[in-house]
Description:
single chain; alpha/beta; five-stranded parallel beta sheet; three-stranded antiparallel beta sheet; 18 helices; disordered C terminus; DNA-binding
Amino acid sequence: MSNKLEHIDIIFEEFLRSTSIFKDRERMRPDYLPETLPHRDRQMSRLSSMVAPALRLDRCSNVFVYGKTGTGKTAVSRLVASRLYNKGMENSIPIRTSYVNCRIAGTDYRILSQMCSNVGLTIPFTGLAATELLTRLVHALESTGQLLIAILDEVDALVKDQGDDLLYELTRINESDSKAKLSLIGISNDLTLKERLDARVLSSLCGEEVVFTPYTASELYDILQERVAFAFRHGVVSRGVIRLCAARAAIEHGDARKALDLLRVAGELADREHCSEVLEGHVLLAERRMECDRVSDALRTLPLHARIILCDLVNMKLGSCGTSTGEVYDEYKKLCRSLLLEPLTQRRVSGILSELDSMGLVNAKLQSLGRYGRTKRIRLSVAPEMIRDAFSQDLLSTAALGEKVAS
DNA sequence: CTTCCACCGGAAGTACCGGTAA
DNA sequence: TTACCGGTACTTCCGGTGGAAG
């Protein structure tokens, strides 16, 4: 026992003695908001001029911000909002800002709850009607005279699984006779979102648009270089390493988040090896590591029946041509019976397969077989060993659960 | 050209849970 | 305590649908 404790102490002391190659690691984190955003001047000034009327407590029009992941939408919006807030504070103008990631918040209720807390209301986790939150929000805005700028990030996720009712209610506040002032900045990486919106929401939300184009490799290089100067010690990251990170991220539509993550993880790997600089090998290793982490994270949080379906796919030993929904469902029913579990309906299994597809764990492509119907061609997109490893422990508990259900 | 397969996927409803307000 | 709330996971129902076969 004491042996182990000594061992822990040794690790900590070694950590204290060693010098990190990071100067300020926080600056490499994906949610860090830098002071400057290279190659985004145009978008920044456009958005600023759109929200500027708020400084006279005039309602400004809602804005729709569109661009692929990691193109700076969130950073630009948050930076503009925080500058606006500060300017308001300086001049005693009651501007409030609210940032909500709709995908993470997940539901109308939690989005409203976040907005309420940003204007100084305390809201219980649950128990209230969503319309009640909306009423309280409007009332708070009216009575305090605050103007709220709400940034709704990944608003496409909200519309996809909750519909556009909330957006409609929110856009209506600004247009109604009430004194409440609320402007929305909707951020989406899916342009087809507009097709799913009600005409009234569309005209109100998408009246003004700011488009973010993907970064090129050389723009990514500039972004990385600027961060490196603050985040790492001098001389530990070579130009070649920065160029490699930029190039790897540029392959995926110029994703700055990926570029920064890549360099940060590579730096952490180098640190752990007590290496005095980040090498290209670290970057390549980091890329592999990040992919593994993503997959095992996804696997670990999967519900029971999704796991059973994945086990099925592993057991079926799919060739290159994959399998179909119907075949998966037959196998799934067999496996459920052997586990003494009640199988779900085919509709649900089809839905789970689509969910696994969007998580990147399987590849499900719609295929028509003409006279022989339509189905999804399903293939695993991760190595079967990874699934087996992740579930090797849990399968025992799955079997135990099966027995529990039976008894 | 029409038919028709084997599903897809939207919509609405159900059951259950953990929570709140009055 | 009771009536109501949201969240999650699921079922039921059903109107599509791409394209090979006839």
